[in-house]
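Priority: low. Protein: Stage II sporulation protein M. Input follows.
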Amino acid sequence: MDLDAFVLKNRELWEELEHLSKLSKLDSVQAQRLVDLYKTTSTHLSFVRTRTPDPMLVSYLSAILGKARRRAGQTKVFHARSVGQFFTRTFPSVLYQLRYWWITTMVVSVLFAFIAGFWLTHHPEVVEQVLGSEQVKEMANNQFEDYYSTYQASEFAAQVWTNNAWVAVQSIALGVTGVMVVKVLFENMMNLAVSGAVMFTAGKGSIFFGLILPHGMLEMTCVFVAAGAGLALFWSWVAPGARTRAQAFGECGRKVLMLSLGLAIVLLLCGIIEAFVTPSPLNTAVRVGIGLTAWIGFMLYALLLGKRAYQNGVDGDIPLWQRDAQTVTAI
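Result:
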Protein backbone atom coordinates (compact mmCIF):
# COMPACT_ATOMS: atom_id res chain seq x y z
CA MET A 1 0.00 0.00 0.00
CA ASP A 2 1.20 3.53 -0.81
CA LEU A 3 1.16 5.06 2.67
CA ASP A 4 1.70 8.61 1.43
CA ALA A 5 -1.29 8.35 -0.93
CA PHE A 6 -3.41 6.89 1.89
CA VAL A 7 -2.53 9.78 4.18
CA LEU A 8 -3.13 12.36 1.46
CA LYS A 9 -6.55 10.87 0.71
CA ASN A 10 -7.77 10.81 4.31
CA ARG A 11 -5.97 13.67 6.07
CA GLU A 12 -8.89 16.09 5.68
CA LEU A 13 -11.21 13.63 7.47
CA TRP A 14 -8.75 13.23 10.34
CA GLU A 15 -8.28 16.97 10.66
CA GLU A 16 -12.05 17.47 10.67
CA LEU A 17 -12.41 14.89 13.45
CA GLU A 18 -9.65 16.62 15.41
CA HIS A 19 -11.37 19.97 14.92
CA LEU A 20 -14.75 18.68 16.12
CA SER A 21 -13.09 17.13 19.16
CA LYS A 22 -11.83 20.57 20.23
CA LEU A 23 -15.19 22.36 20.00
CA SER A 24 -16.73 23.31 23.35
CA LYS A 25 -20.27 22.76 22.06
CA LEU A 26 -21.64 20.43 19.41
CA ASP A 27 -25.05 20.62 17.81
CA SER A 28 -26.84 17.41 16.76
CA VAL A 29 -25.39 17.47 13.22
CA GLN A 30 -21.84 18.00 14.46
CA ALA A 31 -22.22 15.29 17.11
CA GLN A 32 -23.40 12.79 14.49
CA ARG A 33 -20.57 13.85 12.18
CA LEU A 34 -18.07 13.27 15.00
CA VAL A 35 -19.40 9.75 15.55
CA ASP A 36 -19.30 8.97 11.82
CA LEU A 37 -15.74 10.25 11.50
CA TYR A 38 -14.75 8.29 14.58
CA LYS A 39 -15.99 5.07 12.96
CA THR A 40 -14.15 5.85 9.72
CA THR A 41 -10.90 6.78 11.47
CA SER A 42 -11.11 3.65 13.65
CA THR A 43 -11.22 1.62 10.45
CA HIS A 44 -8.26 3.55 9.08
CA LEU A 45 -6.25 2.88 12.25
CA SER A 46 -7.04 -0.83 12.11
CA PHE A 47 -6.09 -0.90 8.45
CA VAL A 48 -2.75 0.81 9.10
CA ARG A 49 -1.94 -1.48 12.00
CA THR A 50 -2.70 -4.54 9.87
CA ARG A 51 -1.05 -3.57 6.58
CA THR A 52 1.66 -0.96 7.24
CA PRO A 53 2.17 -0.40 10.97
CA ASP A 54 3.90 2.96 10.72
CA PRO A 55 4.48 4.01 14.39
CA MET A 56 4.10 7.76 13.73
CA LEU A 57 0.78 7.39 11.91
CA VAL A 58 -0.55 4.86 14.43
CA SER A 59 0.31 7.23 17.27
CA TYR A 60 -1.29 10.19 15.47
CA LEU A 61 -4.54 8.38 14.71
CA SER A 62 -4.72 6.87 18.20
CA ALA A 63 -4.38 10.33 19.73
CA ILE A 64 -7.14 11.75 17.53
CA LEU A 65 -9.46 8.85 18.38
CA GLY A 66 -8.74 9.25 22.09
CA LYS A 67 -9.73 12.92 21.98
CA ALA A 68 -12.84 12.15 19.93
CA ARG A 69 -13.91 9.39 22.32
CA ARG A 70 -13.55 11.71 25.31
CA ARG A 71 -15.41 14.50 23.49
CA ALA A 72 -18.26 12.21 22.51
CA GLY A 73 -18.52 11.00 26.07
CA GLN A 74 -18.88 14.57 27.33
CA THR A 75 -21.94 15.11 25.15
CA LYS A 76 -23.83 12.26 26.82
CA VAL A 77 -26.53 13.39 29.22
CA PHE A 78 -28.24 10.97 31.57
CA HIS A 79 -32.00 11.28 31.64
CA ALA A 80 -35.06 9.16 32.28
CA ARG A 81 -35.47 8.44 28.58
CA SER A 82 -32.16 6.54 28.57
CA VAL A 83 -33.45 4.28 31.33
CA GLY A 84 -36.69 3.77 29.43
CA GLN A 85 -34.83 2.85 26.25
CA PHE A 86 -32.72 0.35 28.16
CA PHE A 87 -35.73 -1.51 29.52
CA THR A 88 -37.88 -1.26 26.39
CA ARG A 89 -35.18 -1.87 23.76
CA THR A 90 -31.69 -2.86 24.90
CA PHE A 91 -32.43 -5.38 27.65
CA PRO A 92 -35.24 -7.25 25.85
CA SER A 93 -33.19 -7.32 22.64
CA VAL A 94 -30.29 -9.06 24.40
CA LEU A 95 -32.71 -11.50 26.06
CA TYR A 96 -34.12 -12.33 22.64
CA GLN A 97 -30.71 -12.77 21.01
CA LEU A 98 -29.57 -15.17 23.73
CA ARG A 99 -32.93 -16.99 23.92
CA TYR A 100 -31.67 -20.33 22.62
CA TRP A 101 -29.01 -20.43 25.32
CA TRP A 102 -31.22 -19.71 28.31
CA ILE A 103 -34.35 -21.52 27.13
CA THR A 104 -32.30 -24.66 26.47
CA THR A 105 -30.67 -24.26 29.88
CA MET A 106 -34.10 -23.86 31.46
CA VAL A 107 -35.63 -26.93 29.82
CA VAL A 108 -32.67 -29.21 30.58
CA SER A 109 -32.39 -27.99 34.19
CA VAL A 110 -36.10 -28.34 34.97
CA LEU A 111 -36.20 -31.84 33.46
CA PHE A 112 -33.17 -32.82 35.53
CA ALA A 113 -34.76 -31.45 38.74
CA PHE A 114 -38.01 -33.35 38.10
CA ILE A 115 -36.23 -36.61 37.28
CA ALA A 116 -33.91 -36.31 40.29
CA GLY A 117 -36.79 -35.34 42.58
CA PHE A 118 -38.96 -38.22 41.34
CA TRP A 119 -36.14 -40.73 41.90
CA LEU A 120 -35.33 -39.40 45.37
CA THR A 121 -39.01 -39.50 46.34
CA HIS A 122 -39.00 -43.23 45.60
CA HIS A 123 -35.66 -43.71 47.37
CA PRO A 124 -36.07 -41.74 50.62
CA GLU A 125 -33.29 -43.75 52.25
CA VAL A 126 -30.79 -41.93 49.99
CA VAL A 127 -32.01 -38.54 51.25
CA GLU A 128 -31.74 -39.73 54.86
CA GLN A 129 -28.19 -40.93 54.27
CA VAL A 130 -27.21 -37.54 52.92
CA LEU A 131 -29.11 -35.25 55.33
CA GLY A 132 -29.71 -37.49 58.31
CA SER A 133 -33.11 -38.59 59.57
CA GLU A 134 -33.45 -35.73 62.08
CA GLN A 135 -32.68 -33.09 59.44
CA VAL A 136 -35.23 -34.68 57.10
CA LYS A 137 -37.93 -34.57 59.80
CA GLU A 138 -37.09 -31.00 60.72
CA MET A 139 -37.26 -29.88 57.09
CA ALA A 140 -40.58 -31.64 56.47
CA ASN A 141 -42.24 -30.45 59.70
CA ASN A 142 -40.95 -26.93 60.19
CA GLN A 143 -37.83 -25.73 58.38
CA PHE A 144 -39.13 -25.52 54.82
CA GLU A 145 -42.27 -23.55 55.69
CA ASP A 146 -40.67 -21.41 58.40
CA TYR A 147 -37.96 -20.23 56.03
CA TYR A 148 -40.42 -17.87 54.31
CA SER A 149 -41.78 -16.27 57.48
CA THR A 150 -38.82 -16.14 59.89
CA TYR A 151 -37.66 -12.65 58.92
CA GLN A 152 -39.45 -9.35 58.45
CA ALA A 153 -40.67 -9.07 54.86
CA SER A 154 -38.52 -6.09 53.86
CA GLU A 155 -35.40 -7.65 55.40
CA PHE A 156 -36.17 -10.98 53.78
CA ALA A 157 -36.64 -9.33 50.36
CA ALA A 158 -33.19 -7.74 50.61
CA GLN A 159 -31.67 -11.03 51.70
CA VAL A 160 -33.30 -12.94 48.84
CA TRP A 161 -32.27 -10.31 46.30
CA THR A 162 -28.65 -10.46 47.47
CA ASN A 163 -28.59 -14.27 47.37
CA ASN A 164 -30.18 -14.50 43.93
CA ALA A 165 -27.94 -11.76 42.55
CA TRP A 166 -24.90 -13.67 43.82
CA VAL A 167 -26.06 -16.87 42.09
CA ALA A 168 -26.62 -14.92 38.86
CA VAL A 169 -23.21 -13.26 39.11
CA GLN A 170 -21.57 -16.66 39.62
CA SER A 171 -23.39 -18.09 36.63
CA ILE A 172 -22.27 -15.23 34.37
CA ALA A 173 -18.75 -14.74 35.70
CA LEU A 174 -17.92 -18.44 35.93
CA GLY A 175 -19.66 -19.17 32.64
CA VAL A 176 -16.50 -18.22 30.78
CA THR A 177 -14.98 -21.49 32.06
CA GLY A 178 -17.90 -23.55 30.74
CA VAL A 179 -17.68 -26.09 33.56
CA MET A 180 -18.34 -23.97 36.64
CA VAL A 181 -21.70 -22.68 35.42
CA VAL A 182 -22.84 -26.29 35.03
CA LYS A 183 -21.70 -26.92 38.60
CA VAL A 184 -23.74 -23.95 39.89
CA LEU A 185 -26.82 -25.17 38.02
CA PHE A 186 -26.34 -28.75 39.25
CA GLU A 187 -26.13 -27.64 42.89
CA ASN A 188 -29.24 -25.47 42.63
CA MET A 189 -31.30 -28.12 40.87
CA MET A 190 -30.20 -30.84 43.32
CA ASN A 191 -31.17 -28.63 46.28
CA LEU A 192 -34.58 -28.15 44.70
CA ALA A 193 -34.94 -31.87 44.00
CA VAL A 194 -33.97 -32.87 47.54
CA SER A 195 -36.36 -30.34 49.10
CA GLY A 196 -39.18 -31.54 46.88
CA ALA A 197 -38.46 -35.18 47.65
CA VAL A 198 -38.50 -34.53 51.41
CA MET A 199 -41.82 -32.68 51.24
CA PHE A 200 -43.50 -35.18 48.90
CA THR A 201 -42.34 -38.14 51.01
CA ALA A 202 -43.93 -36.41 54.01
CA GLY A 203 -47.17 -35.97 52.07
CA LYS A 204 -46.70 -32.21 51.76
CA GLY A 205 -46.23 -31.90 48.01
CA SER A 206 -48.98 -29.27 47.70
CA ILE A 207 -47.29 -27.13 50.36
CA PHE A 208 -43.96 -27.47 48.51
CA PHE A 209 -45.36 -26.24 45.20
CA GLY A 210 -47.52 -23.64 46.94
CA LEU A 211 -44.40 -22.06 48.44
CA ILE A 212 -42.00 -22.56 45.54
CA LEU A 213 -44.06 -21.58 42.51
CA PRO A 214 -45.15 -18.00 43.40
CA HIS A 215 -41.60 -16.66 43.27
CA GLY A 216 -39.69 -19.66 41.91
CA MET A 217 -40.92 -19.54 38.32
CA LEU A 218 -39.48 -16.08 37.67
CA GLU A 219 -36.56 -16.44 40.06
CA MET A 220 -35.26 -19.66 38.52
CA THR A 221 -35.82 -18.28 35.02
CA CYS A 222 -33.47 -15.41 35.92
CA VAL A 223 -30.90 -17.97 37.07
CA PHE A 224 -31.32 -19.85 33.78
CA VAL A 225 -30.90 -16.60 31.82
CA ALA A 226 -27.69 -15.85 33.72
CA ALA A 227 -26.39 -19.39 33.21
CA GLY A 228 -27.28 -19.32 29.52
CA ALA A 229 -25.48 -15.99 29.15
CA GLY A 230 -22.44 -17.46 30.89
CA LEU A 231 -22.40 -20.42 28.52
CA ALA A 232 -22.78 -18.08 25.53
CA LEU A 233 -19.77 -16.16 26.83
CA PHE A 234 -17.83 -19.41 27.04
CA TRP A 235 -18.80 -20.44 23.52
CA SER A 236 -17.88 -17.02 22.09
CA TRP A 237 -14.18 -17.69 22.59
CA VAL A 238 -14.36 -21.42 21.88
CA ALA A 239 -16.05 -20.97 18.49
CA PRO A 240 -15.66 -17.29 17.43
CA GLY A 241 -16.48 -17.92 13.79
CA ALA A 242 -15.10 -15.35 11.33
CA ARG A 243 -14.15 -12.97 14.15
CA THR A 244 -11.06 -13.13 16.30
CA ARG A 245 -11.56 -14.62 19.75
CA ALA A 246 -11.03 -11.19 21.30
CA GLN A 247 -13.66 -9.61 19.08
CA ALA A 248 -16.21 -12.39 19.67
CA PHE A 249 -15.60 -12.43 23.42
CA GLY A 250 -15.74 -8.62 23.63
CA GLU A 251 -19.00 -8.40 21.69
CA CYS A 252 -20.68 -11.13 23.73
CA GLY A 253 -19.25 -9.74 26.98
CA ARG A 254 -20.71 -6.28 26.38
CA LYS A 255 -24.14 -7.77 25.73
CA VAL A 256 -23.91 -9.98 28.81
CA LEU A 257 -23.06 -6.88 30.85
CA MET A 258 -26.27 -5.23 29.63
CA LEU A 259 -28.13 -8.43 30.50
CA SER A 260 -26.78 -8.48 34.04
CA LEU A 261 -27.95 -4.90 34.65
CA GLY A 262 -31.49 -5.80 33.62
CA LEU A 263 -31.50 -9.04 35.61
CA ALA A 264 -30.67 -7.12 38.78
CA ILE A 265 -34.04 -5.35 38.55
CA VAL A 266 -35.97 -8.52 37.69
CA LEU A 267 -34.34 -10.31 40.63
CA LEU A 268 -35.45 -7.46 42.88
CA LEU A 269 -39.02 -8.16 41.76
CA CYS A 270 -38.47 -11.85 42.57
CA GLY A 271 -37.31 -10.91 46.07
CA ILE A 272 -40.40 -8.78 46.62
CA ILE A 273 -42.69 -11.62 45.52
CA GLU A 274 -40.88 -14.14 47.72
CA ALA A 275 -41.00 -11.85 50.74
CA PHE A 276 -44.51 -10.45 50.45
CA VAL A 277 -46.53 -12.91 48.33
CA THR A 278 -45.14 -16.39 49.04
CA PRO A 279 -45.69 -16.33 52.84
CA SER A 280 -48.88 -14.25 52.67
CA PRO A 281 -52.26 -15.59 53.86
CA LEU A 282 -53.61 -15.40 50.31
CA ASN A 283 -55.15 -18.51 48.81
CA THR A 284 -52.54 -20.81 47.24
CA ALA A 285 -54.14 -20.48 43.80
CA VAL A 286 -53.93 -16.69 44.05
CA ARG A 287 -50.29 -16.75 45.13
CA VAL A 288 -49.34 -19.17 42.35
CA GLY A 289 -51.40 -17.09 39.92
CA ILE A 290 -49.38 -13.99 40.79
CA GLY A 291 -46.15 -15.88 40.20
CA LEU A 292 -47.42 -17.32 36.93
CA THR A 293 -48.52 -13.88 35.74
CA ALA A 294 -45.07 -12.45 36.50
CA TRP A 295 -43.37 -15.34 34.66
CA ILE A 296 -45.61 -15.09 31.59
CA GLY A 297 -45.05 -11.33 31.53
CA PHE A 298 -41.29 -11.83 31.55
CA MET A 299 -41.42 -14.42 28.75
CA LEU A 300 -43.57 -12.15 26.58
CA TYR A 301 -41.25 -9.26 27.38
CA ALA A 302 -38.18 -11.26 26.34
CA LEU A 303 -39.57 -12.99 23.26
CA LEU A 304 -42.06 -10.51 21.80
CA LEU A 305 -40.76 -7.09 22.83
CA GLY A 306 -37.21 -8.40 22.44
CA LYS A 307 -37.90 -9.63 18.93
CA ARG A 308 -39.40 -6.29 17.93
CA ALA A 309 -36.43 -4.37 19.35
CA TYR A 310 -33.93 -6.65 17.61
CA GLN A 311 -35.74 -6.41 14.27
CA ASN A 312 -35.64 -2.62 14.63
CA GLY A 313 -31.85 -2.77 14.74
CA VAL A 314 -31.17 -2.77 18.49
CA ASP A 315 -28.36 -5.29 19.04
CA GLY A 316 -27.72 -4.47 22.70
CA ASP A 317 -24.09 -3.53 22.12
CA ILE A 318 -22.59 -0.16 22.97
CA PRO A 319 -22.03 2.37 20.15
CA LEU A 320 -18.95 1.80 18.03
CA TRP A 321 -17.27 5.02 19.12
CA GLN A 322 -17.27 3.78 22.72
CA ARG A 323 -15.33 0.65 21.83
CA ASP A 324 -11.64 0.28 21.28
CA ALA A 325 -10.47 0.17 17.67
CA GLN A 326 -11.12 -3.22 16.11
CA THR A 327 -8.83 -5.13 13.82
CA VAL A 328 -10.06 -5.22 10.23
CA THR A 329 -9.13 -8.24 8.19
CA ALA A 330 -10.44 -6.98 4.87
CA ILE A 331 -11.09 -3.52 3.38
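The longest helix spans residues 205-238. The radius of gyration is 26 Å.
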